[in-house]
Design a protein that fits this description.
Number of helices: 25
Subcellular location: Membrane
Strand content: under 5%
Family: Belongs to the LIMR family.
Keywords: Coiled coil, Membrane, Transmembrane, Transmembrane helix
GO cellular component, one term: membrane
Protein name: LMBR1 domain containing 2b
Helix content: over 70%
Structural class: mainly alpha
Radius of gyration: 33 Å
């Protein structure tokens, strides 16, 4: 099984990343380069999360086997064990636990594979996050009409990112240069670059982690309180509707500017090709309006009209891209929030149901699958939504709270090795005594997954980052996909390095003569920069305690509320007004949706009773051409009569229509049959 586990996980992780990209992205509409860049970024980050536990278990086995050989006096050692236990070095701290021959784990990876693997994964992800993805994101938003213009704009916009990275790298380079005892080789330069990236990532990582460790458990606890969750949804609906209306107004203003420019620049103007490019970025309904109002046969006159410049068209093109993106984002977020509000209202109504069957306000028009028919029946759905779900969320919130406490404690004590205070390090050492490699791998994976969830979900929860979102059912735009890939690649490596410090697998922090993982060896020795290894990496994570306390007492929310940014607060009068406004908005949208469904039901019922009017009309036209004895005037009048009847059937939707008033033999049916017989 040597290397088999690595190969299996590489394949499985690829299909997992492909499945998630298909769920959130749109393979048919979005550009291939955007999809490829996002897929590669997600794939590399998932590889780090899934493969790192195998690296830890492999190193644990090598350490245990080397300790066993030392305890028995065996001379056969591997390359790693000779590096770990030279003749004059201190023995591994776990040597005293080795009494029998340790068993090789099924996921063991032979020497020489992991260093090459981590080197390829790490440097590819860094090139993506610092160079390619920011460039692709700016390139897609650029208003230029040529490839050269878009590249120039993308380079200028990314100068701040490149400048920040070069500033950190330059500062560390100067620090090494002024110390004569440090020699600058390629390895040291590589370590400085990695340290600069990890320092930037750790700085943002701790801020996001301090918020997520408290907010994630609290969100699940609040999710068990249906009433609280419903009024908070009303609050979000009120704020989102304001943003949605502002986005629609902004789109209207931009489209009006596009219309004026389009009418001034005619079809034979040299700048007309740029106008056509801008029009293709506009929504379809605006394109149709502008197409109807434009006369392409009118020539332009350079003397009488003032025409925009190419620079102004580039600016207008960028405004169109931003306005359309913002409009689509708010529209998708509104639809998601509307579905959540309707579902929560259905839960509130069904809680008092005596039949114990869940009834939806708007049942799905699609036929129910086998899962809904045989397993997730309305009765099972009622017990889950109205009873079991709240207790499940409460239990999950308690478990996540305990997990968060363990993370905070370990972040504050992971530098202590004698005694070992980090709880994660204690758990791993206990598993080492029993040679329980599966437990080591599962514990590492669950911990890394929890840390990633707290960090990444925070970005999409905080109001400041509301510009980006991840929506399932192919509703995520290209800019959010690129941003997520860039963020994952930027934060995952320092997060995993921080985790290795928590379990004392990073000798730079733990200061132990212990074999390092291949992942840590690729990161380089932080001892080149002692103030980073012995200062920032150890003491900065302690800031999590302060951030967790501030998040628990909602200090950030209260400060934003004082500054005029309305936040959800139970004791605020403005919050109550926004909740009432949001409730009315949801009620209005439900009425609108109900009218649409009623109209569809009336059309469907009318079609079932009288057939398809369009097919009848085509049949009558074919028969009228075959009847030679019918005069031209009768044919014209009959066609007009039938056309009027068809228009009434398609367009007329009486509001007071009552399906119960219809009989099986409507009074107009005889007249219709007589007309058909006369034809």
């Amino acid at each position: 099984m040597s290397g088999a586990a690595l190969g299996i996980e590489i394949v499985v992780v690829f299909f997992l990343a492909l499945f998630l990209l298909h769920r959130y992205g749109d393979f048919k509409k979005q550009q291939r380069m955007v999809l490829f860049g996002t897929l590669l970024a997600w794939y590399l980050c998932f590889l780090i999360v899934f493969i790192l536990p195998l690296d830890v278990s492999t190193v644990t086995y090598v350490c245990l086997s080397a300790a066993y050989r030392q305890s028995t006096g065996s001379a056969s050692t591997t390359t790693r064990s000779r590096h770990l236990f030279p003749p004059s070095s201190h023995r591994c701290p776990i040597t005293r636990y080795v009494r029998t021959l340790c068993h090789k784990p099924w996921s063991y990876i032979p020497d020489g594979i992991m260093p090459v693997f981590w080197r390829v994964v790490y440097w590819t992800s860094q090139c993506l996050t610092w160079l390619l993805l920011p460039f692709m994101q700016s390139y897609a938003r650029s208003g230029g009409f040529s490839i050269t213009g878009k590249i120039k704009t993308a380079l200028i916009e990314n100068a701040i990112y490149y400048g920040t990275y070069l500033l950190i790298f330059g500062s560390l380079l100067i620090y090494v240069a002024v110390h004569p005892e440090l020699h600058l080789s390629w390895y040291e330069l590589q370590t400085i670059g990695i340290t600069a990236a990890n320092t930037w990532g750790l700085f943002l990582l701790v801020l996001l982690l301090g918020y997520g460790l408290v907010e994630i458990p609290r969100s699940y606890w609040n999710a068990s309180r249906h009433g609280h969750l419903l009024i908070k949804t009303y609050f979000k609906a009120s704020k989102l509707m304001t943003e949605k209306a502002d986005a629609e107004e902004n789109l209207e203003d931009v489209m009006e500017e596009v219309r004026k420019v389009s009418e001034s620049i005619k079809y034979n103007h040299p700048l007309r090709k740029y106008i056509d490019t801008i029009l293709r970025k506009c929504p379809l309904d605006y394109q149709e309006k502008m197409g109807r109002n434009m006369d392409d046969y009118e020539d332009f006159d350079d003397k009488q009209n003032t025409y925009p410049t190419e620079k102004s068209l580039v600016k207008l093109h960028k405004q169109v891209i931003y306005a359309v993106q913002r409009h689509n984002r708010t529209r998708v977020q509104w639809q998601i929030l509307l579905q959540q509000a309707i579902h929560l209202e259905d839960v509130a109504k069904n809680e008092t149901s005596s039949t114990h069957q869940f009834v939806h306000s708007f049942p799905s028009s699609e036929p129910a699958g086998w899962f809904s028919r045989y397993i997730y029946t309305p009765t099972v759905e009622w017990y889950w939504e109205c009873f079991l779900k709240r207790w499940f969320y409460r239990l999950l919130a308690i478990v996540l709270t305990l997990f968060s406490v363990v993370v905070v404690w370990s972040e504050c004590t992971f530098f202590s090795t004698r005694p070992v205070l980090s709880l994660f390090a204690i758990f791993i050492q206990l598993a080492e005594r029993d040679y329980n490699y599966l437990y080591i791998e599962m514990a590492c994976f669950i911990t890394i997954f929890f840390l990633c969830t707290c960090v990444y979900s925070t970005v999409f929860r905080i109001r400041v980052f509301n510009y980006y979102y991840l929506a399932s059912h192919h509703q995520t735009d290209a800019y959010s996909l690129q941003f997520s890939g860039m963020l994952f690649c930027r934060l995952t490596p320092p997060l995993c390095l921080n985790f290795l410090g928590l379990i004392h697998m990073d000798s730079t922090i733990s200061h132990q003569e212990k074999l390092q993982t291949a992942y840590t060896s690729i990161m380089g020795s932080m001892r080149v920069l002692s103030f980073i290894a012995n200062g920032f990496y150890i003491y900065y994570p302690m800031l999590i305690v302060i951030l967790c306390i501030a998040t628990y007492f909602s200090l950030g929310t209260r400060c934003l509320n004082l500054l005029g940014f309305q936040q959800f607060m139970d004791d605020s009068e403005m919050t109550s007004d926004l909740i009432d406004e949001g409730k009315e908005l949801i009620r209005r949208e439900k009425r609108k949706k109900q009218r649409i469904e009623d109209g569809e039901n009336r059309r469907r019922e009318w079609k079932e009773r009288y057939g398809n009017p369009r097919e009848d009309y085509a049949a009558r036209n074919r028969s009228s051409h075959e009847m030679k004895e019918t005069s031209y005037s009768d044919t014209v009048s009959s066609s007009n009569t039938e056309r009027d009847r068809i228009e009434l059937l398609h367009d007329a939707e009486p509001l007071d229509f009552n399906a119960d008033a219809l009989t099986d033999d409507p009074p107009d049916s005889e007249g219709i049959n007589d007309d058909i017989d006369q034809m």
